[in-house]
Each structure stands twice: as structure tokens, then as C-alpha cells.
Amino acid sequence: MEDQKNQNQPIPFKKASSWKKVLGKKWAFPAIYIGTAAIILAFVMWYQGNVMDTVSKMTNGTDGVAVTTPAAPETTTPQNEEAVPATSGVQPLAWPVGKGVQYNVGMNYYDEKASKDNQQKALVSFDSTFYPHTGIDLVSTDGKSFDVIAALAGKVVKVVNDPLVGNEIEIEHKDKMITVYQSLESVTVKPGDEVTQGQVIGSAGRNTFEKDAGAHLHFEVRIDNKPVNPEQYLIQAETEVKNQ
Length: 244
What we know:
Keywords: Membrane, Transmembrane, Transmembrane helix
Helix content: 10-25%
Order of helices and strands: HHHEHEEEEEEEEEEEH
Organism: Brevibacillus brevis (Bacillus brevis)
Structural class: alpha+beta
InterPro entries: Cell_wall_metabolism_enzyme (IPR050570), Dup_hybrid_motif (IPR011055), M23ase_b-sheet_dom (IPR016047)
Distance between the termini: 151 Å
CATH architecture of the domain at 103-232: Distorted Sandwich
Transmembrane segments: 27-47
Largest sheet: 10 strands, antiparallel
GO molecular function, one term: metalloendopeptidase activity
CATH superfamily of the domain at 103-232: Glucose Permease (Domain IIA)
Radius of gyration: 45 Å
Shape: elongated
């Protein structure tokens, strides 16, 4: 009976297991913390390495991934600079001087990109003030008046007698172009007239604004109502035209 009682009694647990012994050491928790941190750090480094490898392959166009290089931004014209219109879409202009007239270009167009010397030569002196020349002056070699012709076919939109620049004609053309003829002694057209290229529209004379130029034609070209250098639109070089 006594043996049977002993068999039925529960076997007591050991009070100190191997884990409890380890955890009871002073260095146990610091060691566990450092080990855990090392594992996390190793995982992070492995993950970053895979990400960088994927990015590198995409950049080099590998693994079938096509990489498009961003296009360079378009260069725009600064607002403070005047844009010069292209001449390819505009019909060339004829020099506005009658056939057989021998002439020279007097004062040139004032170009902001020209040298200071050329800019000074393109200033009109009037009433103790200097003004940029907005066109070109055509002067006959004999100093006399001559026929002025339309540089391009178009519609006459303005004919006035200005006290400073003399008789003035404006002709409207395609592509927002207007040709201007000033310092005219006489006029043979009126507003609303349709003119052809080379048609006589008046004769050159003198004016108050450029009195030192003598008998001449002041010729301008305007695009979008802004003066531009007429010579970029004219058909022939001056040396070819003035000996017609």
C-alpha cells in the first residue's frame, strides 16, 4: 500500500531550469538586446541592398526595363528682348525705289545689337534730342526726288500729311506686316487702294524731322506693329539694286 501511495504522488518540478539559470545572469538581457539589434540591422542592410540593385538595373535599362532620359527644357526668349520674326514665310520685298534710279542707303536702322559706333550713326538729332532710327533712308545719288514704289502687294491703310515726317503711306500685307513710306513729296494712292509690288505710290521729298537728309525716302517695315530691320526682308543687296 505504501508503495502505491508513493506512485500516485506528483513528481515536483525542478526549481531552476537551464533557461532560468541563463536569464539570471547579469549579462543575459544586454546580450539578447545586442543580438536582436544585430539581426534587425542585417535585415535592413539586406533590404536596402536589394532596392539599390533594382534601381541600378532600371537606370541601366537592364531586366527588360526601358529607361527614358528626360528631355532638356526648351529655351525661351527673355521678355526684355525683341523677337525677330522668321523671314521664310514672308514674300521678299522689292527695294521701294523706281526703276533706273541710282541711290544710296543714308541712315540705317538702329540695331540694339550693333556696335556703339553704328548705333550712333543711326540716331536722328531733332530739337536737341536723339531718336533711334526706325527704318532706312534711301537717297538718290543726284540729290533729286525720285519715284517711290510699293515694296510688296497689299492694301493702303493710311495716307496722311504729317508736319514732321511729311506725307506718309502705310500698306498692309499678309503675316501682320506693314510697310511705311515717309518723307514723300507727292502721293498717288489713297486709303483702301489695292496695290501691286513695284507700283508707283508717290515721290521722295524732304521733311522736318530729318531735314539734314535732303530729298529721301524713309522706309520702315513693321511686324505686329513693331519696327524691324527692313534689310532682312529686301530681295537684293544694296549694291545690286542701286545701279538699276
